[in-house]
Amino acid sequence: MAYETIVVETADHVCLIRLNRPDALNALNGQLIGELAEAVGEADGDKNVRCIILTGSEKAFAAGADISEMADKDFVDVFMGDMFGSQIDRILACRKPIIAAVSGYALGGGCELAMMCDFIIAADTAKFGQPEINLGVIAGIGGTQRLTHFVGKSKAMDMHLTGRFMDAEEAERSGLVSRVVPAKKLMDEAMSAAQKIAEKSALTVKAAKEAVNRAYELPLREGLLFERRLFHGLFATEDQKEGMKAFLEKREPQFRDK
Ligand code: HXC
Question: What top-level branch of life does the organism fall under (predicted)?
Answer without folding.
Answer: Bacteria
